UniProtKB/TrEMBL annotation:
InterPro entries in the record: RsmH, SAM-dep_MeTrfase_MraW_recog, SAM-dependent_MTases_sf
Gene Ontology MF term list: rRNA (cytosine-N4-)-methyltransferase activity
Listed PANTHER family: 12S RRNA N4-METHYLCYTIDINE METHYLTRANSFERASE, S-ADENOSYL-METHYLTRANSFERASE MRAW
Organism (species): Micromonospora chokoriensis
Keywords: Cytoplasm, Methyltransferase, rRNA processing, S-adenosyl-L-methionine, Transferase
Name this polypeptide is given: Ribosomal RNA small subunit methyltransferase H
Reported function: Specifically methylates the N4 position of cytidine in position 1402 (C1402) of 16S rRNA.
Family: Belongs to the methyltransferase superfamily. RsmH family.
Cellular localization per UniProt: Cytoplasm
Top-level taxon of origin: Bacteria
Length: 346
């Protein structure tokens, strides 16, 4: 395990701690899952703030786990570190014998460890073999995707996961290059992307290869499929009063998070009944208004925070009729408001 490069600053740390505190600090032993442990910046702060809390830290990257283990060594008696994809959470909880959890954090995407590693191929700015697997023990590499996908599949990956306007042109350039030989390096790929984009477009929107590299990383790691499965399982695992916080870094992740929460915070009963039918009320309440954005000071101190979107929710007590009634009234007022001319919903 090499030395860590650069300084890793956990994103929206104070806000995450503030949101998790009522769930983790409610007395007795509580259980917190860090679904994306990384270098354990958030996890360490949670363990420091909550001396009674047990941490279950997941990461699919064995190198990240090794660093986290060192960082969290002084908490070893209340920490479980697991090499797992976060959609395996139910199995992990079963195996460890924790039927319910009190808090869970998803800090999505890649870590600075992965981005800065000269040999892992995540960064377009450094030449490296085209790997991009977060879990280097299994799965296909970006090199295999780039050298084997048919044109329509490659173009779809770039368009959907990278929101790349020039997906078709880039895919064509990749296929032409493949006829000359295998594309094996991140620098060659970045150069190909740059050459396929019209000159005026190269001058806007950051590095021309940024979107292609994001798209390949999402495809290689099946990131969105894992997230789509993991979010409902995480919500199911939370006890009453338990809280989930999600930090997303692009619109596709944030959209999945918003949809998973929307499904739990709305009533499934008829709109015009004064009380909820048993089992039809909301099971969660939102703790964030829309997606929360970082403040200017946070972005200035930590450029990685620039694109973050935070959403959070708390599990409701199904027997708390007062809460159910209040939420129901609020939800009815909202529905009524949506039918007034000139009003809408965020
Ligand atoms: C942004 S970093 C987390 C940083 C961490 N919050 C900290 O303070 O150090 C994201 C981490 O999540 C891991 N990761 C991403 N997708 C994952 C998944 N589907 N399952 C498990 N770990 C994942 C990555 O390997 C990476 O180490």
């Amino acid at each position: 395990m090499g030395e860590l490069r650069g300084t890793h600053v956990p994103v929206l740390l104070e806000r995450c701690l503030e949101l998790l505190a009522p769930a983790l600090g409610r007395g007795g032993r509580t259980v917190h899952v860090d679904a994306t442990l990384g270098l354990a910046g958030h996890a360490e702060a949670v363990l420091e703030a909550h001396p009674e809390t047990v941490l279950i830290g997941l990461d699919r990257d064995t190198e990240a786990l090794a660093h986290a283990r060192v960082r969290l060594a002084r908490f070893a008696d209340r920490v479980h570190l697991e090499h797992a994809v976060y959609d395996e959470l139910p199995d992990v909880l079963d195996r460890l014998g924790y039927p319910g959890i009190d808090g869970i954090l998803f800090d999505l995407g890649v870590s600075s460890l992965q981005l800065d590693a000269p040999d892992r191929g995540f960064a377009y700015a450094q030449d490296a073999p085209l790997d991009m697997r977060m879990d280097q023990t299994r799965g296909v590499t970006a090199e295999e995707v780039v050298n084997t996908y048919a044109h329509p599949d490659l173009a779809r990956v770039l368009r959907v996961y990278g929101e790349e306007k020039f997906a078709g042109r880039i895919a064509s350039a990749i296929l032409r290059e493949r006829e000359r030989g295998r594309i094996t390096s991140s620098a060659r790929l970045a150069e190909l992307v740059r050459e396929s984009i019209p000159a005026p477009a190269r001058r806007t929107g950051g590095h021309p290869a940024k979107r292609t590299f994001q798209a390949l990383r999402i495809e290689v790691n099946r990131e969105l499929a894992a997230l789509e499965t993991a979010l409902p399982s995480a919500l199911d695992a939370l006890t009453v009063g338990g809280r989930m916080v999600v930090l997303s870094y692009h619109s596709l992740e944030d959209r999945l998070t918003k949809a998973a929460l929307a499904d739990r915070v709305r009533s499934k009963g008829p709109v015009d009944l004064p009380v909820e039918l048993p089992g039809s009320g909301p099971t969660f309440r939102l703790l964030s208004r829309g997606a929360e954005l970082p403040g200017e000071a946070e972005v200035a101190a930590n450029p990685r925070a620039a694109s973050v979107r935070l959403r959070a929710a708390e599990r409701l007590d199904p027997n708390a009729t007062e809460q159910g009634r209040t939420d129901r009234e609020r939800s009815r007022r909202r529905v009524k408001g949506m039918h007034q001319p000139g009003t809408g919903s965020a």
